[in-house]
Amino acid sequence: MRYFAAARAAAGTSEETLDSPAATLDALLTELADRHGDRLASVFARASYLVDGAAWRDRTAALPADPTVDVLPPFAGG
Questions:
Q1: Band of residue 19 on the pLDDT scale cut at 50, 70, 90
Q2: 77: pLDDT strictly greater than 80
Q3: How many CB atoms lie under 10 A from the CB of residue 10?
Q4: Three-state secondary structure of the chain
Q5: Nearest-angstrom CA–CA distance, 50 and 55
Q6: Cβ contacts of residue 47 below 8 Å, gap of 6+?
Q7: CA dihedral 63, 69, 73, 76 (to 10 degrees)
Q8: What tens digit of pLDDT does each residue of 45-70 get?
Q9: Which of 20, 48, 71, 73 stands 20 to 30 A from 9 (CA)?
Q10: Where do the structural domains in the chain lie, given as residue ranges?
Q11: What pairs with residue 69 in β-bridges?
Q12: CB of 10 closer than 8 Å to CB of 42
């Protein structure tokens, strides 16, 4: 899991590795929100996601084995 901008600030780290893979993006986000708290959960609600470099819009779809997930909160500016 790699965090950018506000997600990095909310998680307190730029990336982390989980020992047990989650089946779906929703499951992964729930696990991480439980770990890091409401501030990160709030970022997750507005963020976009990349899984292995591709946009991932279906948060209930099965994740591939050992994915790299990028959390991209909304960015301001040009």
A1: confident
A2: no
A3: 21
A4: CEECCHHHHHHCCCECCCCCCCCEHHHHHHHHHHHHCHHHHHHHHHCEEEECCEECCCCCCECCCCCCEEEECCCCCC
A5: 5
A6: 7, 71, 72, 73, 74
A7: -130
A8: 999 999 999 999 999 999 999 999 99
A9: 20
A10: 2-72
A11: 51
A12: yes
- β-strand 2-3 against 48-51: which pairing, if any? unpaired
> In the block, which residue shows the tokens 């997750």?
44
Per-residue tokens: 75 = 């960015």
Length of the chain as a residue count = 78
The correct answer on CATH 3.30.465.60 for the domain covering 2-72 is no
